[in-house]
Records
---
Amino acid sequence: MMRDMRDIEIVQLGPDDGERLREVRLRALRDSPDAFGSSYDREAGFPPGRWAERLAGPGSRYWAATRDGADLGLVCVRLEEGAAHLLSMWVAPEARQAGVGSRLVDTAVEWARSTGVEEIGLWAVDRNHAARALYAGKGFTPSGKVMALPSNPALMESHYVLSLIFRRARKEDVPAIVAMLADDHLGAGREGDPGDERYLAAFEHIDANPRDELIVAEQDGKVVGTMQLTYLAGLSRLGAERCQIEAVRVAAATRGQGLGGKMITWAVDRARARGCAMVQLTSDRSRPEAHRFYDTLGFTASHVGYKLNLG
Ligand SMILES: CC(C)(COP(=O)(O)OP(=O)(O)OC[C@H]1O[C@@H](n2cnc3c(N)ncnc32)[C@H](O)[C@@H]1OP(=O)(O)O)[C@@H](O)C(=O)NCCC(=O)NCCS
């Protein structure tokens, strides 16, 4: 059985961690030569001071994933010309597919965002499906730039940027979410003051339920979209779980830019990754444009939804 990886800590490497950085980075380069633009032979020959220099650079930060004194993962962020670049991402084979890569990316992205950069970018080799899936799940999208991998020009790599992220909502997002719910012809008549404590109570309830996820789309640090995903258990279809999408909203100022499609595609991928057999939703009859939207995303209006309002 896979060992629990929750006892792995993500720690920032300090100026005295040159030797440590050397060790984990060289292991990464030896383990995954086709994932990186650099090579083991190149970096194994670096003079010792070079590793400390890397750590001392004012625009660079390194984090290791560590357990019991052993480093099992690495990520770096470098700031350059107003943009942040995520580099050197690696998780040791024995620690993979347990969320360590995800935590490293989150740590790196959080720091990069805190510096106020407008763009966070990275390069990933096209055939590196694990890395691409990891980054896609975090909201990275291809920028269109491609190049041959410097260490192995037979491989192509593509550039990805994060200007949009999808994440679970936090308490402080609640007023922005309620404002989006209220900002349409149906919502206007049924929502109240975004600061009403009943919204906060409902948020805590959703947040505590492992079958519920209130999601926000954050673009350039601003909440611009929301949806609620609920994972419904059932007996039919051999006990399949289904994902229900509710309360989808894109902020008025951000509509018409493809954000809604990205949100739903992300939700469908998330449901698929969780093992759901189906994604379902209902949409009010008075929203024909929403129906066209779901049609284009591959949904079929196969059912008639009934509601009984209990006032
Ligand atoms: C890419 C890499 C860093 C992922 O690290 P990891 O700790 O295994 O990733 P996580 O467990 O956090 O996975 C996060 C998401 O990535 C995706 N993912 C990770 N490994 C995957 C795989 N083998 N196949 C498909 N998707 C994968 C999944 O979407 C996963 O989300 P889920 O668990 O909710 O399904 C790791 O495979 C690695 O170090 N590879 C070699 C080096 C490398 O490719 N570095 C990237 C350079 S750009």
---
Amino acid sequence: MSRKSDKYESFVDHPRYGRRPHLTGRDPSPAEPGIHLHWNATTYAEVIGRYQLVTGKRWPYGNANAYWKETRRIPNTAVPADLSRQSPATVAVTHYFDLERECRDCRRPFIFFALEQKFWYEQLGFPLESDCVRCFECRRKQQGLAQQREVYELLFHVRDKTDQQTLDMADACLNLIEHKVFSSRQTERVRMLLNSIPVDSETRQEKRYLELIDRVLEIEERG
Ligand SMILES: [Zn+2]
């Protein structure tokens, strides 16, 4: 395969699974009896076909194609599931497939890998309803922000903060502003925090304190 025709080159990299499909040579069809794929790996036409196969009746729900999330199952990437390890579901999934996805946050393409799904649903105990809508980078960023938020909220309730706790809180608040979780007007709060450190405290000479001040100024200059 030439690099030019390799569309996966532009996919977001995953530190464990990479950015390209993992070909296993397995390609079970959801039309076969005993094969159950995750709803997010099945096309609308396949769901209807399956319904008609199993019940012998016509699909009674009209055309919901517009509401059906597009699936881009990558052929020959199936990994068999261990049903005994999945959380109980109405319909267990017998095979996972590598799926092409578009990240909800950065809009870049990425693969939700069959092996990653196996890990989610069989090792981590995630329910089969849980789905992956963000690329690895955006997920990591989001986890980082969730952590910052937690730090901020914890310290918010600490009455007599040490200087270092005040700096931690100011730092968390700035991270949340910089990633647009908080509005830029919240720099006022960061200023109050930094001003609460006594003027004669050595903390005011620390590099970290000065860097926090710089970040406040930078955000306020940008408006
Ligand atoms: Zn992303």
